[in-house]
Write a structure and sequence with these properties.
Layout: H1 9-15, H2 18-44, H3 53-81, E1 93-95, H4 96-113, E2 117-122, E3 129-131, H5 134-151, E4 156-163, E5 169-175, H6 182-189, H7 205-216, E6 220-225, E7 231-237, E8 242-243, E9 264-268, H8 272-284, E10 288-292, H9 295-304, E11 309-313, H10 321-331, E12 340-344, H11 349-358, E13 362-365, H12 371-384, H13 388-398, H14 401-439, H15 448-465, H16 468-482, H17 486-512
Parallel strand pairs: 2-4, 9-10, 9-11, 11-12, 12-13
Antiparallel strand pairs: 1-3, 3-8, 4-5, 5-7, 6-7
Length: 513
């Protein structure tokens, strides 16, 4: 028998005891995530309205750094655990303006601590989105900015972002420090660290990290000295990282889609196929996307970071979408107000009522294959959680508000509530009829007659209230049913039900007023 050192967790870890390592990292990961979540959650509980401007800036700076730490922690824990990576699935839509603002917020504060000025210069023709991983670019730029602040004792640090002549993107960090000596430049470019005689502490790892991150994005890092004094570090990214969305090329025949380029989305879905499809649709609409594969991951994400909206699959492992909704709404505080668009294949009224009762702001039927439906669904949910002017503008895309209000005016104050109740009842009756007919089309094509009958009623209702898009869909669905085109009926049927649900929700809201 071979002698061995006494059992010790550090020894087990160093020698590759797989069982000990797995348990150790599972517990460590849990505690690290909990600690970071407590920090970020504590920041969210601070009401900034009573604080002076300087304190508010410092809170925002801590938030930015904390969320960056959370992203870095999640990536490293995933690598240690050897779990699947979303990198090959998730379209890497990075909102450039948001990243630049976060970098400014973090490093301006660091510069001020040393009595330095921090400047951010943006070119006039910058792309809204970049097809790169946020964490990679953020790590590269943070290391370069950190070096610039470290080596500058007076003067300023400047971050400038411009389009390159080749159509790519140049992000340059300039400082007013001593610049690179020939020995230092040769050493860092050869990844040998800094010369031993260098006056500042450090090992040159920041530049090595930045160079590795930039190379992984298909770019190049150039180092040198500014003729006016100081060092220059320029990250050059190729033109392929600059995302052009369909809406950037002009509106399509049906008009422009809602602009989602400012929206950050958390997509919770356990199906890799759905993740790929929906995240690709979101990316093409300009949204930033993060993925969660089950309900527990959704709540963990929301503990760590802020999102504009959550797209939530109702049927997920470990914690269902309904359980996530109930848990989220019960938390209290700002995170509980996060808009949620539920995604489900179950479109019966009982299912939808249960989803809304759990706290969803909207429902999107599976399968999700249309840019239009996805974009307008997100816009409508955001409008419900936004100030009234934006909601009115988005309601105008659903219904002719002038015609609708004129209809209520004709009915008069005494009769308008009865009219709204009758509209709700008739629309829900049509909805039930269409759901039942579409569900039995495969086994009984004769139900096309039911589709024709229900769309005939829907044409009258949609026309009366000025719901033009729903009217057009009902007309097309009616025509497809007459032509016995089952494939088109099934496809148009789902879209029509979605628009019908919007109209029912809108009228219910007006009735509640």
């Amino acid at each position: 028998m071979v002698d061995r050192a006494p059992s010790d967790s550090r020894y087990d870890h160093a020698t590759g005891n797989a069982g000990a390592d797995a348990g150790h990292f599972a517990l460590l990961g849990h505690d690290l995530r909990a600690a970071v979540s407590d920090i970020l959650g504590g920041l969210r509980l601070i009401d900034p309205t009573g604080l002076d401007a300087g304190t508010q800036v410092q809170l925002e700076r801590v938030r930015v750094a904390g969320e960056g730490l959370a992203r870095l922690l999640e990536q490293e824990l995933a690598m240690i655990a050897g779990g699947p990576s979303a990198t090959g699935i998730l379209p890497r839509n990075l909102h450039l303006g948001r990243l630049l603002n976060d970098l400014r917020m973090r490093w301006e504060g660091r510069a001020l601590q040393k009595g330095l000025a921090f400047e951010l210069e943006r070119g006039a023709d910058l792309p809204v989105l970049l097809n790169v991983e946020r964490l990679a670019l953020e790590r590269a730029m943070s290391n370069l900015l950190g070096n610039a602040v470290k080596y500058t004792d007076q003067g300023r640090v400047r971050l400038s972002v411009v389009r390159s002549p080749a159509g790519g993107l140049d992000l340059s960090v300039r400082d007013q420090g001593p610049g690179f000596t020939a020995a230092a430049l040769a050493a860092v470019q050869a990844q040998k660290g800094r010369p031993e005689t260098h006056g500042k502490p450090g090992h040159g790892l920041g530049i090595q990290i930045a160079e590795n991150m930039v190379a992984g994005m298909g770019g190049m890092l150039r180092l040198g000295n500014d003729p006016a004094g100081g060092a220059v570090a320029c990250v050059s990214l190729p033109a392929t990282v600059c995302v052009v969305r369909p809406s950037d090329e002009g509106p399509d025949d049906d008009g422009p889609l809602p602009d989602l380029s400012q929206i950050r989305v958390l997509l919770g879905d356990d199906s890799p196929t759905n993740q790929l499809l929906i995240s690709a649709l979101l990316a093409s609409l300009g949204a930033e996307v993060e993925l969660a594969s089950d309900g527990v991951e959704v709540l963990n994400w929301l503990d760590r970071e802020r999102f504009d909206i959550v797209l939530l699959d109702i049927e997920m492992p470990r914690l269902s979408g309904l359980d996530v909704l109930r848990g989220l709404r019960a938390q209290g505080g700002p995170v509980a107000q996060t808009p949620v668009l539920a995604i489900t294949a179950y479109v019966l009224r009982a299912n939808r009522d249960a989803i809304y009762a759990a706290g969803a702001d909207g429902i999107l039927a599976k399968p999700v294959t249309s840019h239009e439906d996805l974009a307008h669904s997100i816009a409508r949910v955001l409008a419900r959680r936004s100030p009234v002017p934006q909601a009115v503008a988005l309601d105008a895309q659903l219904i002719d508000l002038e015609r609708f209000d004129h209809l209520l005016a004709i009915a008069g104050p005494a009769t308008a509530p009865e009219l709204l109740a009758r509209l709700q009842s008739d629309l829900r009756s049509v909805e039930r009829g269409l759901i039942a007919a579409l569900a039995s089309l495969i086994d009984n094509p004769e139900t096309l007659g039911v589709v024709r009958a229900q769309t005939h009623v829907l044409l009258a209702l949609a026309g009366a209230v000025g719901a033009q898009r729903l009217y057009n869909l009902a007309e097309a669905l009616n025509t497809a049913a007459h032509q016995h085109n089952l494939a088109v009926v099934r496809s148009l049927g789902q879209v029509t039900l979605l628009q019908l649900d919007y109209l029912i929700t809108f009228i219910s809201g007006r009735a509640a007023r």
